[in-house]
Amino acid sequence: MRVVRYREYGGPEVLVAERSEVPVPAPGEVLIRAEVIGVNFIETQRRRGQAPIPSPLPGAPAGDVVGIVEALGDGVSGLAAGDRVAAAVFHDAYADFVTAEAGWLVPLPAGLDPLAASVLASPAQTAWTVVRTARIEAGETVLVHAAAGTIGHLAVQLARLAGAGTIVATASSPAKLDFAREYGADITIDYSRATWPAEARDSVGEVDVILDSVGGETTHRGIGLLAPFGRLVSFGSAGGGPEMPVVSTMDLMGMKYVTGSSLAEWRLRRPDQVRAGLAELIDHLDHGRLRVGIHAALPLAEAARAHQIIEDRTQLGRVVLLP
């Protein structure tokens, strides 16, 4: 089978398709024949050796795989060969066949678009946990950064489903701002402009919730936009590096809250709630309340091009590979 790996850190060109044996599922795992592989931003950082958690060499990207169960490892129950599932695969995800732990596999309803269903493996769950962490109340004003990305455009929609009133979306180009409006944003602002906080304040005043995957100075400036009892939820550092900005006590004296959200921690600490949320997400997707924008669906051999699209910051929604 084919599998895409990299032997050195660098640009997209270091991604190389290799030949490998079909893996054998270990106890508690399943073997999946991949149909769709979702490509995530964090893998471009890992490939460059710049991720918060380094990826050792040789590297093998992770990804969100939709496919057909081919074989079961020892101890796996509740699944059968032929089932279509979504799975977060943490190693050798860009491949014709992958193995994944059975515990968090997502069985997919018949008829669900496999390209859209790829978000169920992790991006939609991430967006759900971020929105849940924010504790959005009916009518609140919510600002979503990087709202044209895979997680961002899902977070816009889930914030609305959670009861948000006005939704402000930030992105870095006119095309992305148009895309964010298409997926439910009321107001859009180019956060690459230094004046974005003032523009947000002029549009809506203070905001109740900020969902922030950008980090760095964007996080720090966002705190100043929060209303009393406002919440900023940080869940990434796409533009600001791995370090949180320094937040002084005075920044928070106006009853402002800054917290983080991690899907891994939610699964560890609140697994029943995450499973209930996953059932909600499947229902939303199945009934059209949650939509997934597919920016590009490329052959597996064009993994480098998929990474280039993401690094060029032209991505609108989801980029996937097709084995």
From TrEMBL:
Protein's UniProt name: Zinc-binding alcohol dehydrogenase family protein
Enoyl reductase (ER) domain residues: 10-321
Organism: Actinoallomurus acaciae
InterPro entries assigned: ADH-like_C (IPR013149), ADH-like_N (IPR013154), ER (IPR020843), GroES-like_sf (IPR011032), NAD(P)-bd_dom_sf (IPR036291)
Keywords for the protein's UniProt record, in alphabetical order: NADP, Oxidoreductase
Gene3D superfamilies the record matches: Medium-chain alcohol dehydrogenases, catalytic domain (3.90.180.10), NAD(P)-binding Rossmann-like Domain (3.40.50.720)
Pfam families tied to this protein: ADH_N, ADH_zinc_N
